[in-house]
């Protein structure tokens, strides 16, 4: 029954032959899987169920894999207004004689800074680290892309933009028609970034201030303030110009975050140092405002191209 319920949580009850499992003592990891991410994606989500058949509680404290530069456990929580926000988890409890599910719209594993392209049917080695039982070697099977799309909408696209005076519903219908992309082509990179953010988020009654802007090659971090609140945007430049990959708070002054976004360790350390150096003269109160943004909102190129 426990196995059936675990498969049901992963949406596999009708096709049990797809499931695979791994054991370590009284622990069982059922069907670790990764929905196929979009081509060129720098992150992928992992799901599974961890069952604990012992009479003592257990904790999953870390996940490691050579698939990505960084692996984190996250949870998506929906507030009273129906807005979803993603938060990092330091550990996940697995009660005695119970299980913990990692599933779309809830707990999930984020493989950040992918080191290789994924294909359906690939088996990705990973190590789960438990507080008492130790390490368990598992393989995540790469499945169809349709669940990946569902994850992107449930866990990222509808995240809380309220700190930016910009609701999740508004994001899905962003009006980029007011931005003159041909005119932006003649601007410097900082001018393009400022125009992009202003054209996207500035509005009457809630003016947006963008500072400082820190560039390192094809990536940038921009601080923003609006209505007494603030945060940071991580931007990336491709053949079509700059776009906001995600918005967050204090994590965007951390080199480990930039490694997770695909930067090499040296560039990540330099970008972190440059962001901190650019913000330091602006004062503690200003930095606290940028740090106040809670969670992470992933936008990406598709978010910017939605209306084009």
Automatic annotation (TrEMBL):
Keywords: Signal. Gene3D superfamilies: PCu(A)C copper chaperone. The keyword Glycoprotein does not apply. Residues 1-19 form the signal peptide. Pfam families: PCuAC (PF04314). It comes from the Bacteria. PANTHER family: BLR7088 PROTEIN, COPPER CHAPERONE PCU(A)C. This is Copper chaperone PCu(A)C. It comes from Antarcticimicrobium luteum. The lineage of its organism: Bacteria, Pseudomonadati, Pseudomonadota, Alphaproteobacteria, Rhodobacterales.
């Amino acid at each position: 029954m426990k196995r059936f319920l675990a498969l049901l949580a992963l949406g596999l009850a009708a096709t049990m032959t797809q499931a695979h499992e791994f054991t370590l003592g009284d622990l069982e990891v059922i069907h670790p899987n990764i929905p196929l991410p979009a081509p060129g994606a720098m992150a992928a989500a992992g799901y599974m169920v961890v069952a604990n058949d012992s009479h003592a509680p257990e904790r999953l404290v870390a996940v490691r894999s050579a698939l990505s530069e960084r692996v984190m456990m996250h949870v998506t929580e929906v507030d009273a207004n129906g807005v979803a926000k993603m938060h990092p988890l330091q550990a996940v409890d697995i009660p005695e004689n119970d299980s913990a599910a990692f599933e779309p719209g809830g707990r999930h594993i984020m493989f950040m800074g992918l080191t290789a392209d994924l294909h359906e049917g690939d088996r990705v080695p990973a190590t789960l680290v438990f507080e008492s039982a130790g390490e368990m070697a598992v393989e995540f099977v790469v499945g169809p892309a349709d669940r990946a799309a569902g994850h992107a909408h449930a866990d990222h696209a509808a995240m809380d933009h309220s700190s930016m005076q910009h609701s999740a519903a508004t994001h899905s219908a962003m009006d980029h028609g007011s931005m003159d992309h041909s005119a932006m082509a003649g601007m410097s990179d900082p001018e393009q970034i400022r125009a992009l953010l202003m054209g996207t988020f500035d509005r009457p009654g809630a003016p947006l201030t963008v500072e400082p802007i820190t560039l390192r090659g094809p990536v940038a971090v921009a601080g923003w303030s609006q209505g007494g609140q603030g945060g940071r945007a991580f931007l990336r430049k491709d053949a079509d110009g700059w776009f906001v990959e995600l918005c967050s708070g204090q994590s965007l002054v951390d080199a480990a975050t930039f490694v997770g976004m695909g930067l090499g360790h040296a560039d990540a350390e330099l970008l972190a140092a440059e962001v901190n150096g650019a913000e330091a003269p602006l004062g503690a109160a200003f930095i606290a405002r940028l740090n106040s943004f809670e969670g992470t909102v992933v936008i990406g190129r598709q978010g910017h191209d939605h209306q084009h």
